[in-house]
From TrEMBL:
It comes from Paenibacillus albicereus. Residues 5-148 form the Actin-like protein N-terminal domain. Pfam families: ALP_N. InterPro entries: ALP_N, ATPase_NBD. This is ParM/StbA family protein. The lineage of its organism: Bacteria, Bacillati, Bacillota, Bacilli, Bacillales.
Amino acid sequence: MGIVGIDPGGSAVKLYDGKQFRQFPSAIGYDWRERNILQQHGDHDYDWAYEGRRGFAGTLALHESQMADSLKGDSKAHPEARLRVLIALHQYASGPEHDIVVGQPVGTHTRNQKELIKKMLIGEHEMTINGRRRVITINRCEVAAEGVSAGLLAGAKGTVRVIDIGSGTVNYGTLLDGRYKDLESFTLVTGMDTRRNLDLDSFARQIAAYAVNKGWSNRDTVHLCGGGAEPIQRELAKYFGSAQLLKAGMSEFANVDAFYRIAKGLYANEKN
Ligand SMILES: Nc1ncnc2c1ncn2[C@@H]1O[C@H](COP(=O)(O)OP(=O)(O)OP(=O)(O)O)[C@@H](O)[C@H]1O
Ligand SMILES: [Mg+2]
């Protein structure tokens, strides 16, 4: 039985099983076609088949799908997110059965959305990638809140603030002595890839203004994660003097690291 954390982000799918951090582009195309030229495009060329549909994913979709896209937004209760999770398990998880924790933005981390995600993931799935068929069984699945969960990595007492700057969302999280504080955790539905011209300074100002509006103080210790954390840290430090990286050099993996820790806490001691 494998315990796995999976963060099916709008830009990249991240997986952590306690040993290795993995990621691949979230792009998925449903317009499968026979290819005459079989050039390799990257390390994540996936020709997938699932439930009667077939298409390309990862680096193959980025290069060869006409309509490759990756849904960005404030919910992951959609079939595309299921494909992302299943591709991750197919490629990188060992064994046929899994207990997983996946992520959902704080703003839509509701009972209803969580149930939808669990319902679409728990059970047996048959998927073929690049001709290799696997039956993937998800026995247990829980849905963690993005951003605020990553705050667990800070391991600090008192108030911990986290800003998770992703491709399509910015998640704000507040923890008090290791416990989530719903009141001061929320999601801004914009990100590093949703703007026509990314001006880091104005984006940092928008991120900070939203936090201050919701009651954060610019004297708070703020931890940054997500792929946008490192490029924007300097600009954000103008507004939050103490802004620091939660997982320097691996900012995009902070959420999935936390999801794995949560999964261990939930599943490791349970008797099957
Ligand atoms: N050096 C960089 N400069 C600019 N942008 C960067 C850099 N490194 C990463 N990014 C951006 O970070 C984003 C990926 O971050 P991350 O993996 O946290 O997003 P995600 O989790 O897939 O998205 P979301 O959380 O919104 O679902 C991409 O939009 C990418 O363009
Ligand atoms: Mg993310």
